[in-house]
Amino acid sequence: SSGINAEYGVTGKVNIKLKQEGKKLEHQGIRIEFLGLIEIYYDRGNHYEFVKLDKDLARPGDLSESCSFPFEFLKVVKQYESYSGRNVRLRYFLKVTICRRLVDIIHEKGLVVHQLSSYPETNSPLKMEVGIEDCLHIEFEYNRSKYHLNDVIVGKIYFILVRIKIKHMELSIIKRETTGSGPNTYNENEQISRFEIMDGAPVRGESIPIRLFLSAYDLTPTMKDVNKKFSVRYYLNLVLVDEEDRRYFKQQEITLWRKSPTSLKPENRGVAALENMRTTLRRRVVDDQSVL
């Protein structure tokens, strides 16, 4: 499969190679299609087509030698990112059909589409206090609520009250894939990562740092209500285990996005604009001096 940016058109060439040169291949026309499908695995009989474009490459006739046909789909709406999960797949592909009287000759070529984003304008930290009355009171904080796929999650856990014997604490990333709607909604949870951030009993006032590198994991952007068929969400799951192996946990949703190579942080956009302005002014000055 070939990877493409969602903003680009799709161009290329279809090469048809005859098994025996000189032997004619009779056909009723040759066409190419650009397709986008959502396939839900437990509903195999239904494929949900959300984009379809087609072009004729050749009129009915005979092929007597290997040949190539260029094609171009300039305005292709690729509004969703390619995705392959446990219960659903969203895919884009090119389909070439050589129409024949009895059996058509069909070949498919998959394409991977990435939706690139810019830094969000607002990205406030996540703060929350949780606990059990008169037994446990903790405060956790993550530096942001939205992260790109190669980002680093930085945070801390602060123990305000500890009256139960905690054995260890762990943090995991949970991916929740939701398909269907209403009474037919089905959730599939997958633990992407899990690591221990504390071993032993904490004391009141103790602070535990968190640093989690997302680039180590196979993640996708957050996907919400894609074509009203499925969603993919991510959660940070904090778990405390006491000496009797009772588990206390708290989940917090985070938003993941795919960073564009040229995207700038909001605080740097003004600096970049100013640098561009300075560069333009320098060029004008140089150009004016060269005229003199």
**Which blocks of ≥5 consecutive residues have pLDDT under 50?**
269-292
What do the pLDDT scores average to? 84
Counting H and I runs of at least 4 residues, what is the number of helices? Answer: 1
**Rg, Cα atoms, Å:** 27 Å
Helix content: under 10%
Overall number of strands? 20
Order of helices and strands: EEEEEEEEEEEEEEEEEEEEH
Approximate shape: elongated
Largest sheet: 6 strands, mixed
- Structural category is mainly beta
Instruction: Give the percentage of residues in beta strands.
Output: over 45%
Distance N terminus to C terminus?
A: 56 Å
How would you describe this structure to a colleague?
This protein has one helix at residues 266-291; strands at residues 2-5, 10-16, 25-27, 30-40, 47-58, 61-63, 67-73, 83-84, 88-98, 105-114, 126-132, 136-142, 146-148, 152-162, 166-179, 186-199, 207-213, 223-226, 230-242, 247-257. With 292 residues, the protein is mainly beta. The protein is elongated. The model is unreliable at 269-292 (pLDDT under 50).
Keywords:
292 residues, 6-stranded mixed β-sheet, 20 strands, disordered C terminus
The gist of it:
The chain has one helix and 20 strands.
Write the layout of secondary structure elements.
Elements: E1 2-5, E2 10-16, E3 25-27, E4 30-40, E5 47-58, E6 61-63, E7 67-73, E8 83-84, E9 88-98, E10 105-114, E11 126-132, E12 136-142, E13 146-148, E14 152-162, E15 166-179, E16 186-199, E17 207-213, E18 223-226, E19 230-242, E20 247-257, H1 266-291
Parallel strand pairs: 1-10, 13-20
Antiparallel strand pairs: 2-7, 3-6, 4-5, 4-9, 8-9, 9-10, 11-12, 12-14, 14-17, 15-16, 15-19, 18-19, 19-20
